[in-house]
Structures are given as structure tokens and as C-alpha cells.
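dumping the sequnces here before i forget
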Amino acid sequence: MTTATTPTTTTTLDTELLQALVDRLLAMADDEVILGHRDAEWTGHAPILEEDIAMANLAQDEIGHALIWYQLIEDLTGQDPDQMVYFRDAPAYRNVQMVELPKGDWAFTMLRQYLFDLYERLLLDRLLTSAYRPLADAAAKIRREEIYHYRHTSTWVERLALGTDESHRRMQAALDRLWPFAAQLFVPLSGDAALLAAGFFPAMDELRAAWQEAVHSFLTNMNLTLPQTRPVTAERDQHTHWLPILLGEMQMVARIEPDAAW
Amino acid sequence: MPDTEWPRYEVFKQDRPGRPHEAVGTIHAPDPEMALLNARDVFVRRPECYNLWVVPQDQVLTMTRMEMELNPNWADEAIPEDAPMRTFYVFTRQHHRRSMVAATHVGEIQARHHREALRKALESGRFTDKPVYLWMIVPADAVTSSGEEDVEPMFAPAQDKRYRDQSYYGGLIFDKNALKRREREMG
Amino acid sequence: MSTFPSTPTTRPLPNVGLPTDPDYEQRLAEFEARIEDGEKIEPGDWMPYEYWRQLVRMISQHAHSEVVGMLPEGAWIPRSPSLRRKLILIAKVQDEAGHGQYLYHAAESLGVDRDTLIHQLLEGKAKYSSVFNYPTLTWADVAMIGWLVDGAAIKNQTMLAHCSYGPYSRAMVRICAEETFHYKQGKEAVTLYAQGTPRQRRWAQDALNRWWWPALMMFGPHDKDSPNSPALMRWKIKTKSNDTLRQEFVNEIVPELLAVGLQIPDPELRYDEETGNWHIGPIDWDEFWQVLQGNGLMNKARMEARRRAHEEGLWVREAAEAYARRRMARSGPEKMAA
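..and the predicted 3d for all of it:
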């Protein structure tokens, strides 16, 4: 991707490119807000006090990132982030199914986070040179926290995979469950071609290849077997039954007083 | 079934380049890498930090002035003849003021073992310009340290979370008139 | 429910003095002189057994309270009504875990290990602040806890920062620096809700009705009913009495609550022009003791949640240790301990 010599402002974006950009930003924002929600469920219930503190950090980071992406959408369309988060129904959400699944056990949460963290790190590396300046700036800010997330979760995946027989068994079970869902991270959106042509967003094919290579060597080095199950290739508007349950809890206070300030 | 809270590591934090490391507490961790990550999550939720050291607790000798008085033979111990000379970091506390820090890095000394290091530190006179109430002796080769490349991902993000700082909360004014107006509007 | 005997037969740490020691009286006099001089007592210094025992009790109860305290507010994280409130609440509950961590460290400095302390809590053998045995019924409870409960905690913690035992004092100084944000965010939120929609104002008033008395009970029984207090005061573990702190708290917070249009749920509350004190009505100490004994609305639920987290986390803690053992076995023998 080439770096723009002048920052691209919204007034120079045509309708199609604008929509494509909003769609991708929404996908990133929704992924983070839902994942952050699941991460926060561990607060007070983690395996040890230090991890209560660590998971709370992860959750704050993810929700903070979501806010950054929603704010970029707000700059483009005027939509308020809280309005988007608290007043959209499940079919309007654009997160991948992987992040809406219940938190499961520690192996499940750590592996899910690792698979997502790796995807996000690789994506952010490529977004650093996005021709859409606000996106490049946001990526630079978010990326440093993602480096830390990746370090934390890959450290845990390794310790559980190579810890005890029980932890290895649970990590393999988590991998069996999560692997097909991870594929959905790379499902293209209809506007991706326009974004690629404009230098705004990287190609998903190349990103998937980089991700697969990294994950493959990391996990197989720990005696984990990558499942041969069929990947989830649904579009991002297709959700599991878990999302409306999650949103029901998440949105209930906001929705009970839609005009209130909190 | 035996339970575990993991071993403990002493944590030493350097707030800025050029400032001395300070003993801030301990964390529980299964190994040095996780100790560094846990130390960051526990002790660097707010700025500032430039560098962290973690050291297994059983590798740190902590001794008070009174302890040395109560046990005059504290320095006696059997050290193997072939024990190599090593670098030991010296931390002291020289006051009784309220503080969140237990001891501050004041220098280093060469010795074959912790108690010898403390004895030599005392004898050198280098650290006792004022009375020392608490000593911590830390072998350099037991330290796991964060790196230069860790400053951005590990320590800088604390600056962004301004909502954790009490100064972020301005006094919110309770406007009785606005409330009355709204009550009237709602009927 | 004392977890360590009041008449010791063994020495818990090398320089802890037992009343049966021949030099006990002399050492005690020296110890009390140090405290009078404002010196900090550190682990390893001589200290009377009773000082050690009171500190282990107080610090571990304080630590347990922080950890259990994560639950009533943590329950509302998923239902936070805005992204900003969600971030703030997660950060606050994270701080509570962190404070528990600092406090367990202070207790561990007295020679008790964290595994033992946690098991005492989970087996119902340890106490923690009864304020956390009440349920959080609305979102406004979360805001009110920040203002009232953390406000009360700050009064207590500011005093404890001066305490004579070094590790506890240091933990308190660190906690005080972080706690003010809890109080301020709560006050900001309640002030907003108290002038918000009718439902928000109802929630705020209802939350105050339910949390007012539990917050006042946080300061402990009246001075005359506090058996531990004289020793704690003499050795500067506490420097202000329960009633003194409680009165200070009431004097500060009543005008603030009234100023935002809320009513204090105390029909006997009155202002005394002469002393400048707000006089409160009688506290229901029966309820206090019931809840402390374990019969509060949420005692069982709180303990079950903590037990479950701990039991389900065992395989995780073990796995991490197994990995570490294997790595160390490969990298060679451990160094000599200090």
C-alpha cells in the first residue's frame, strides 16, 4: 500500500468508498466491543488474583479500542458510539461469531484471545501505512497494546498446552471448538476491493496466509493438532444464538432509559 | 489435593530513565516471564514506569537494623570455597516517612553470597551516610528485567487511561433549577 | 472466629516476643518507645505476639474484603449503560483486586502464606467487611457504592496510612492514591442521576436508602463495644477511634448528599449547631452481627462464587507450575537461596 502524501478527508471520499470504510470500521469495532465484554466476565472469577487484574486490563484495552473505531465511524457518519453499541439489535452487529461465544474455561478464553490478538496484530501492522490517515493513526496507538496482549495470551497458551495432561487436553478441546470459527475473521466484505484499490485496507488473502503460517507453527510446536473441520465462512451479519443473549444483558440498563445521560 | 498460589517475586520499579529502582512489593507468578507481565499489570496501572525488575523472593535478602542487633551472628554462614564473586544490588531505606516504597537502589557490591554482600556494604561505609533502617540485597543474575522495546507496549498505555485518575473527574454541579424545569416538562 | 490463638505456644516468626519470654517486658518498653518516636516496625524487628496477631487479623480481613468487594460491582459490569461507564467500572473493580493483592503482600510479610489465608476465607473461618454481603439491585447502587462505601473506606485508609507497621502503611499509601478516583466517579454519577430522569432519581434515592446504614457500619462497632481497639490505638495500628471516624464521615457526606436533593434514610438525623456535628439515629447492631456471622443476604452467594472461581482455577495454577518446573529442570539447578 502507498502512503498518501496528503491526509484523506471525508469530503474527498465517494459514497461507495465511504460505505466500504464504515463497514470495515464497524467490523473491527464490533469485534472488540463483544470480545471486551467476554473478557470482563472473568473479573472476580479468574484462576488467581493476578489474572483478575490482567483480564481487567485486557477488557479495558479492547473496549477502549472499540471506542476508537466507533469514533472514526462517528467522524464519518455522525452516529454516536453509545447509540451504536446499546441500541442495535443482534442482526445489525458485524462481529465474528468467535467473539460472541461464552467465555468457556481458561484455555478457551486464552486461545480465543490469542487467535484474535494475532489477527489484530498482523492487521494493525498493515494498517500503519493505510492511505486513510485517521486509520493509520489509530492503528499506531492501538498496536502497542496489542503487542502486550499477544505476549500475555501466547505465554498462557504455551503454558497450558505444555503444562499438565489436563491443561493440554483442555487446550486441545478449545482448539477443536475455536479453529473453524477463526476462519471467519478473513471472510471478505463487499467493499474490500474498493478499500484495497484506495490503499485504505489490506488484502484479506495475504493477511490470512500470514496468520495461518504463524498460528500453524506456534500451535503444532506444542503437540496440538489443528482440526480438520469445515471452517465457518458465514458473512458477518450471521450470528449464533449467543449474541442476542449477550446483548440482552449488555443493553438492558441503557434501553430502559433511552434518553438518560449516564 | 495440594493447592498453590505460585511462588513470589519481589518487584522493583524504575519510574524514569536515570532514577533509581524502588522496591514496590511482590507478585505471585509461576515463572520469571509471567512475573514480569504480572508485575506490570499490578504495579503499572498508572504512570510512570520505564523499567521493571522481578526477582524470586527467596533470592532477596531483606534485613532490618534491629534484626542485625538482635542477632549479632547474622553474617555468619557457610559459603562454599569455590563460590564465585557476583554483583549484588543494594537497596536501603533511611527514613520512617510515609511512603509506598520499601527501599531504594543505592549501589552495588561484589560478594560470594547475600550476607557477605550486606556485611561488605556495611563495612564500606558507602551506604550509611545516614542510618539505614532496612536493607535489601539482590543478586544481579537473579533479576529478570523489562527491555527498552517494552516501554511502548508495557508502560506507555497507562498514560492513555485517564479515567483512572481522580483529576479526570471535575466537580459536577447539581443544578436544582434545571431539575425543576425538567420535572415541570415531564408533568 | 479467631484464626490465630490469643495465647501462643509457638513463635510465628523469629523475633516475635511471647509474654513468657524472660526479656519480654524490657523489649516491649523499647518497642513502644520506637512507636512513640514515629518509627516504622518492619518484619524481622522485635514485636509482641499480640501486635503480630492483631495485624494478621486486620490486614487479612482487609485483603479479603477487597477481593469479595469485586463481586457486588463486578456483577454490573456487563450491564454498564455506556462505554465510558463500563471502562470506569472495570478499572475500579480491577483496582479492588489490586488492593487485595497489596494487602495480601502485607499479610504475607508477617509470615502467613497467601494459600493459607485464601483457604481460611473460603472455608468460612475468616471475616471480611460485611458491607459486601448486601446485594446491588440497580445500576445506581454501583454509583452509590463509589460515593458512600469508597468514601468511608478512604477515611479509614487515610488513617491507616499512618500506622506503625511498615508493610501495612505502604500498602495503604498506595491504595489511598488510587481510591480517590473511586469516590469521585461515584459522586459524579450519583449527582447526575439525582437530577436525571424520574427513574434515575428513584434509583439513586433507593440506593441511598439501602446503602446508608451498611456504609456507617463499616467503621465498626461503637468504641465502647470494640474489644480490639485499645491495643490497636496504643501501638498506632489505628490512630483514630471507630466513632471519631464515623462522625467525621457523616459530617462530610450528609451536606453533600442533601445538596444533590437526596434524603438520608434516618428520621432522627439532626444538625447540632453547637458542635457542628450531624447526629445520626441508632445503628441496628443486631443486623450488623447477623450479617458478620454469615446470615446476610449475600454471604453464601459471595463465598460460593469465590469458592467456585478458586476450585475451577486449580488446574490452571497447577499447569503453570508444572510448565515452570519442567523449564527449570532443563535450564539447570536453582541458585542458593538468600
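The first helix of chain A runs from residue 15 to 40.
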